[in-house]
Design a protein that fits this description.
The chain has 408 residues and is mainly α. The protein has 15 helices and no strands. The longest helix is centred in the N-terminal third of the chain and has 34 residues. The protein is globular, with a radius of gyration of 20 Å. It starts with 5 loop residues before the first helix and ends in an 8-residue tail after the last helix. The mean pLDDT is 84.
Length: 408
């Protein structure tokens, strides 16, 4: 495998920019704002939990399934790019649905389809990295992935935040759709694949068995799954409900705009640390970076549990960003180092994706229930209970990463 240029890595990770633009805009700004607009203030917490959970259920099964199918795709275009193209283009349908509907049911259906098609594209895309990047260059590639994560997320937050409070949702969805087409073209045309040479007959039982990861044969990968689950559960519980906290607890009249400011500071902090974390991980080890990262994220959760002011949130957002940036910058390199098999990399990354997606199913249901339970008494206690769970979950994930033996 030849050495890749920086231009190639930019082309490779261009689609990842759009993926993070999409979810940065949707999860922190658009969906909470639009759900509140559709169902009203009294039902927003449980409704948000419903939307996010049903979408995450679809995503949880889509990535490993289509990742495995891409592992065995023998089209002339390659194993991965056909899934990126199909999934990407099909995303345009639910984006159009969600832009204009005022029906909560249709909004849920649109988000379900968006999760389905976006994760089909993502499943194919993730396989491009181990296919085209050598082991020696994966640290560099992980840095590019981290950079695109932060740039895409902050761009999505800034653009969507400027329109969400005024309910100009079609403008946001149009920006997402245009960027999708541009980034997909750059990656698909910029990355060349060789056709898959193995032509094995499809056997359903054998296909299903590939999804089983033997914990005795691959303990590091299993511990990575468990650690990721707890860290991301804490992250999503905090991330999904920050707009409602700013509205319900702090009484903001422009919660989407204020959330945009908080999220922007988080991403700036994350971007700063991501540049340095890769180098420090070579000296300190990736597990140490993960442990320090979850501690930084837990600090903000503790402050929120103690009823932080908006000024304090802005200051602590930078600390949270340091943690998020450190974790994101090393997780790709860590997981690609311990994948069970090279031939099934997209499937294995899809299984790893479940450990990030399952918290999106469970987290909104738990968080929504906790907040709704106190909405007629003192809603802050619901948020406090949720943030205590965030702290416990982050701590568990940070400790479990030390169970991974064959990684520094």
């Amino acid at each position: 495998m030849k050495k890749n240029t920086l231009l190639f890595l930019l082309k490779l990770t261009s689609f990842w920019f759009w993926v993070n633009f999409l979810w940065g805009a949707m999860l922190s700004i658009v969906i909470p704002s639009q759900v509140n607009f559709i169902v009203g203030n009294s039902a927003k917490s449980s409704a948000l939990g419903t939307v996010l959970s049903i979408g995450a259920v679809v995503a949880m099964f889509t990535q490993p399934l289509f990742g495995s199918l891409s592992d065995r795709c023998n089209l002339r275009l390659g194993r991965r790019r056909p899934f990126v193209i199909f999934g990407g283009l099909m995303c345009l349908i639910p984006l159009g649905m969600m832009a204009f509907t005022k029906s909560f049911v249709l909004y849920c259906v649109g988000f379900l389809l968006l999760q389905l098609f976006a994760n089909i594209a993502t499943a194919g895309f993730q396989g491009l990295i181990p296919d085209t990047v050598s082991e020696k260059e994966r640290g560099t590639a992980a840095s590019f992935m981290g950079g695109m994560t932060f740039l895409g997320t902050i761009a999505g937050i800034l653009i969507s935040g400027s329109f969400a409070d005024s309910h100009q949702y079609p403008v946001i969805y149009l920006a997402i759709a245009v960027l999708l087409v541009l980034c997909m073209i750059i990656t698909v045309l910029g990355v060349k694949e060789s056709p898959y040479e193995k032509h094995e007959p499809f056997q359903l039982k054998k296909f299903i068995r590939t999804f089983y990861i033997n914990p005795h044969e691959h303990p590091d990968f299993v511990w990575m799954l468990v650690s990721t689950f707890f860290i991301m559960l804490g992250f999503y519980l905090l991330f999904f409900y920050q707009q409602y906290y700013i509205s319900d607890v702090l009484g903001s009249k422009q919660p989407a705009t204020d959330t945009t400011l908080v999220s922007t500071i988080i991403i700036i902090g994350a971007a700063v640390v991501s540049v340095l974390a890769g180098k420090f991980s070579d000296k300190l080890g990736r597990k140490a970076i993960v442990a320090m990262s979850v501690f930084c994220m837990a600090v903000m959760a503790l402050a929120l549990a103690l009823h932080a002011t908006f000024v304090a949130i802005l200051i602590l957002a930078m600390v949270f960003g340091f943690g998020y940036g450190g974790y994101t910058s090393v997780q790709w390199a860590l997981v690609t180092d311990i994948l069970p098999g090279a031939d099934d990399s997209a499937k294995d990354l899809g299984i790893w994706g479940i450990s990030s997606t399952l918290p999106q199913v469970i987290g909104p249901m738990i968080g929504g229930a906790m907040i709704a339970a106190y909405k007629t008494t003192n809603i802050f206690y619901g948020y406090r209970l949720m943030y205590i769970l965030v702290i416990a979950s982050l701590a568990a994930g940070g400790l479990m990463v030390y169970k991974i033996k064959n990684a520094r």
